[in-house]
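Note to self: keep these together.
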Amino acid sequence: MTDEIWEFRTLYSGIQYRLLAFWDKDNKTETLVSATHGIIKKTSKVDKKEIDKADKIRKNYFKNKKK
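Structure:
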């Protein structure tokens, strides 16, 4: 996982659910957690393509936010 992308996970009925997200700390009084997408995992590691997808969404978010 990169420093910018975080993984939230839970186990329910024997299935591992993963939610990839990032933090927006631009506001000094509040922090926004934005989820990019979720996946169901069958292995212990998150595929690089899923991390890359989340990072692309994060970069696009901050690019559009500055407009």
